[in-house]
Amino acid sequence: MSDVKTILITGANAGLGKECARQLALLPATTKVILACRNPQRAKAAQAWLRESTGRSIFDILILDLTDLDSVRRAAAEAPVVDALVLNAGGLGGSGGGEQTADGVTWQFAVNVLGHAGLAEAMLEAGKVRSVVVYAGSEAARGVPEFRMPQPKLETSSVSDFASIGDGTLFGESFDEMAAYAHAKYAGAMWMASLARHYPAVRLVTMSPGGTAGTSAAEEMTPMKRWMMTWVAMPMMLMFGHAHTVEAGAKRYIGAITDERYKSGVFYGNERKTAGPVAEQTPFFPELANAAFQDNARAAILGFLA
To answer: What is the pTM of this model?
Structure first.
């Protein structure tokens, strides 16, 4: 799509977000990349690195804390009109992922879903997104049996069920960060599908970057889990073809932005396990196509935003 010239990327100071910004800058049509980041110092460091590595001075900074809806609203108001919005930031949150933010949701849900929903809903309503929104999905949202990751389960998929993911009550006293992450990403994919029906002139695509080495997702883990992920789990996944490089993961975002064959309202991810060809995820988890469930997810998210 030659008309995609200005792109805003959340979590663009490291990992997939920064690599996506680098790859976009190498496309001739790109004229501006906005790095939406929480930490000003890290944002400036990423901006300097991107300018040097690409030879282009097209990178602007927008301060955005996805765990604070006031910050999200300010960023949405300050953001210019863009052709593409890439909702990339996220994380597990480690032992602190279940802690509630001032907005009444868990830290994990805030950074993976609610902050992005607040940004996208506000920008779309204001007519600030011309062409495409890409949300970072995860195969965890449809389950990965090979890695003993079950599909997310809700009792009735009602609005209150989806709200219980957001505020953490679904998980009771024991907050399992991987189970909570899977449910959050499921809610995010369902919200995107519902949102797509409200904005038919914009393509809204959920795209999993796949199992990706070199991301910042492990930063919030406990020291032991971070060590295990960095030095044991990820090298093993790369060795056996269950993961790929950060360059390959970011390239999926580029495809979702530029290739109109990726349809609006659809969740794309790996055809099997956590690496390999990209495919629609509905055959693995039919609930993903349920329009009523999708609308319930969005209604729950709008409730938190209100």
So the answer is: 0.90
